[in-house]
Please model this.
Amino acid sequence: MSTARIILLVGGITLAALGMLYGLHYAIFVEHQTLDRMGGSLAQAFVHASERNLPAAHGAVDVYASTKYDYVRQVDIHSHWIGLAMVLIVLGVGFDQVGFSQRYRIWIAVALLAGSFIFPLGVILQTVQHGAVFGSVLAIVGSAAVTVSLAAVAWGVWR
Amino acid sequence: MNTGVSPRAQAEMYAQVVSTPVAATFGPMSARRLLIFGGIALIAGGMLFGDIFAVFVLHQNGAQTGQALLAASQTASAGNSLAVKENFQNVGALLEDHGTKVDAHVHMTDAGYLALLLALVQPYVALPQKRRKLLAGLFVLAGLLLPVGIFLIHYVGLAYSPFAAIGWASVLADSAGALLIVVLVVEGYGLWRFLHNGVRGEEFELPIERTWERRTLMAGGVTLILLGFLYGAWYAGVDLYRHEARETQILKSMLDAAGHGQGGTVVEVASYGSLAAEKAVKIAAHSHVIEFGLLAMLLSFVQPYVYLSDRWKRRWIVVLLAGSFILPVFVLLEMNFGLVAGGVADVGGLLIIAALVGMLVGVLRYTGRLDASGATQ
Model:
């Protein structure tokens, strides 16, 4: 088996396992509490409004928005890691058909794997501090690496 | 019997079917065969369910959720906090109805993808043939039971359940999910044995081909994933933060109107519904185009087993890729062109289902000819 294929297959399986472990941890220890906080704060906002307590209602909406901001990104990292892992594994099976030299194929495989790991990691880092630049930069660099590599693969398969 | 096919063409077709390298990779009722049949059937079933859901449930459910939110807002305006809580319970039930149906669709198609993926890696799973066949059967069974269980959660509820919060449908879904995990862990163990000890599986590697069919599906699949990726990046950069800010703003305006006992919440609820729809179609377009790209890539490996004439093989590939492009694009256009675009998107989904069924028929024909010829014995 070629080096590029090993990178994609082993990297893809590892990334899928990482995504699933993160998902399992999230489902058991975080998700229910997050959903309760999200649904509870929204319902509470309307209850406060019915009591004519608008500052408290606005506060509850802010709690809802902040919780949802985290929730969306926490679920995204799980689905993106696993989704990208599946793409890596499928590419790994047929990567010898990409019409580039072995050296280029290895570089493309490394860029795909690195981008697939870094991009969702950047997304989850955005929840540590809302609006943090470092997380966004990582996400952009990672997604750019995956995008350029995928374009190269599409060209390599077709030519 | 006169079949209308020349003897030479018949001989060529026969030679194609029994060509040993391909035939040897597709033994009778082998793990790979089970996974390919089961995988394509699960994907087609999941797609059909998604299409039915989109036509008969999605929009109706959205309208009902909007009405429930409006009722919550009006009861808040009337100062009735008890009724607010009841309305939110109603919203919760509607969201459960919507969520379980989306989940059933997603889990059935994803189980199909995983089945095809497992079919590809069988040569690297260093386990005895009998055990791999058992694992394949269990995987397909669990892939079917998981979405069925999820679908029933909303209807079965807690009826006859001995548990405080978990119903029988959830038990079925969770058990099927656990079975999938067990199968994947054992398959992973087989892969580890291959990588660590160099022990090979008993299944042959897929033949390496650079046919038009494989190249088109691979290049088309990667291009679809690339498009989905670019669109996702655009959504994250341009829409995501704007949507989040707008949702907070709409909710606060709704609460202000309700808190002051004023009217006007109808407009806010409509804005909230419109925002939810905009988010839903954009995320759906992103995820569907990537999933169809993955499907095209997976199906490129199945092509040697599709026993159809070249013309029909290519037709189904073009139909599949066309549907894979039409569905997400017209889902996206639903915000501008409403139900007309939704209808075209559903047609795109039907094209993909038709192509999948066409390829499945091709694989079945291949199987029949192969077994009749005894090429795999």
Summary: Chain B has ten helices and no strands. Residues 334 and 340 of chain B are 8 Å apart (CA to CA). Chain B touches chain A through 53 residues (CB under 8 Å).
